[in-house]
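Postdoc handover notes: sequence design on the structure in folder B. Input tokens:
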């Protein structure tokens, strides 16, 4: 007769331990990933200072910048090849492979390779996102603490996912998006234990990160009014456009990786150096176009630039992101996707104002919605995209437009038979390992 109460008590006790461990993991992940963000800020400042200083030296200065960017990119690629080959790229496909049992959990040494290699690559101007290294570092820290606490595999798996979500939450100062990412993208189902761990880890991470990084959202956006029902067809159209462009972007990323694979006889350090040199040349002429792209996203959200300039930025970044991702260094895709989504929204908003001035929302509103829609088209995680856009901008009044556009973007990408980007990246890694 006492079996059921004892079982319930054991389950409650296990959930309490899991919740406490998730908080501890979140605190550790928040500290490491916040320091990673601060290091990236300093690296960007050093790169910009170098560009400003060398521009006075004309062509000699160009050679210095190109050589420096090429050198740090090559060093980042060497660190990955020498110490942790699985630290290449985003890291999210590797985390998903661990979650599905296809790979063993990340060793802790991968975390420092992601940290140092990510700072070198993104500090050198490569158009990569900080969220990929942060997710993989969070997962590695969670795995270490799960081993130290002697948790079984089901609990370790939950904590592993929660640590990854805490890394994403810290990368974008987006606590809810970090938890939603765990449930929608990593675990792909909802259960109480996973939800508790994900929420606890994200809360712990943000509590520490905001002490070091501040409490404001990453992007500053003026309050937006609630849109009327007349804008629903307009946002459906934005979603379709974002879906088509998202499919194109996914295919460009995979094509860039295929080209990199075809040049396997060229050492990865040499390939990274060539990409770094090209980025250095671009940085010397247009320093705002390189790096993670937060400043570009903020400018799009401010909606103060001419549409043709926005189109130019979009075209350059559309090509630059995949090329940098194929360089063989640590770095993610989220932040570059947010840049492109914001540009799509601004241009779309400008067109709407020309044709439907009475019904169109502000270009800023379209930029926020474009971020969520383009993310959804590429990753196929609409809830994460919506919550991420809200967390990063504070625009909760745009939920209906984001739902509408994300619905259309997801439908368009699916009808075009383009799989989610991280599924494609996992399949690519599996094929390479089987050969």
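Designed sequence:
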């Amino acid at each position: 007769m006492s079996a059921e109460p004892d079982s319930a008590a054991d389950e409650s006790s296990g959930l309490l331990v899991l919740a406490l461990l998730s908080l501890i993991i979140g605190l550790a992940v928040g500290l490491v990933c916040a320091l990673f963000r601060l290091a990236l800020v300093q690296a960007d400042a050093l790169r910009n200072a170098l560009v400003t200083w060398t521009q006075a030296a004309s062509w000699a200065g160009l050679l210095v910048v190109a050589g420096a960017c090429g050198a740090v990119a090559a060093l980042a690629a060497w660190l990955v090849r020498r110490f942790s080959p699985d630290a290449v790229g985003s890291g999210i496909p590797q985390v998903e492979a661990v979650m599905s049992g296809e790979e063993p959990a990340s060793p802790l040494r991968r975390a420092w390779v992601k940290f140092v290699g990510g700072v070198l690559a993104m500090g050198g101007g490569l158009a990569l996102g900080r969220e990929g290294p942060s997710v993989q570092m969070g997962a590695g820290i969670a795995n270490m603490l799960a081993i130290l606490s002697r948790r079984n595999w089901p609990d370790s798996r939950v904590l592993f996912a929660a640590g990854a979500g805490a890394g994403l939450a810290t990368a974008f100062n987006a606590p809810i998006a970090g938890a939603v990412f765990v449930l929608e993208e990593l675990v792909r189902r909802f259960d109480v234990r996973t939800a508790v761990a994900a929420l606890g880890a994200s809360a712990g991470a943000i509590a520490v990160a905001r002490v070091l990084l501040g409490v404001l959202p990453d992007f500053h956006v003026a309050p937006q009014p609630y849109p009327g029902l007349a804008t629903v067809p307009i946002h459906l159209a934005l979603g379709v456009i974002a879906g088509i462009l998202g499919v194109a972007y996914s295919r460009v990323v995979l094509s860039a990786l295929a080209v990199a694979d075809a040049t396997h006889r060229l050492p990865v350090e040499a390939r990274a150096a060539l990409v770094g040199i090209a980025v250095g040349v671009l940085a010397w002429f247009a320093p705002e176009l390189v790096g993670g792209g937060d400043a570009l996203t903020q400018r799009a959200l401010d909606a103060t630039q001419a549409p043709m300039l926005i189109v130019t930025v979009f075209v350059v970044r559309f090509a630059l992101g995949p090329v940098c991702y194929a360089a063989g260094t640590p770095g993610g895709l989220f932040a570059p996707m947010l840049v492109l989504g914001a540009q799509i929204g601004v241009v779309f908003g400008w067109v709407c104002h020309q044709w439907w001035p009475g019904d169109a929302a502000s270009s800023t509103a379209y930029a926020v919605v474009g971020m969520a829609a383009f993310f959804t088209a590429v990753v196929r995680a609409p809830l994460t995209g919506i919550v991420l856009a809200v967390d990063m901008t504070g625009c909760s009044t745009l939920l209906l437009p984001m739902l509408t556009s994300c619905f259309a973007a997801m439908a368009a990408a699916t009808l075009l038979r383009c799989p989610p980007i991280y599924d494609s990246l996992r399949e690519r890694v599996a094929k390479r390992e089987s050969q």
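Context for whoever picks this up: Residues 3-54 form the longest helix (52 residues). Don't rerun without checking with the PI first.
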